[in-house]
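Page 47, continued from p. 46.
Same chain as before, 54 aa.
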Amino acid sequence: MKDLWNDDGAAECGDDLLAAGFLKQQNRDMLIITSTPAEVIDACLSYQVPVVQK
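Result:
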C-alpha cells in the first residue's frame, strides 16, 4: 500500500485512479498536492475553480 501521507503518495494515488478510469484528467488536475501545511493553505486560498465541459 502506498504512503498517502506524503506528496508523492498522494500524487501517485491520483495517477493510479486516473489510469484505472475512476478519475478524469480534469479532476486529477484539480488535486492540490503540497509538501507542507502552509503550502496547502496558500494553494487553497489562491485556488481558482476551472471551467470544465460536462
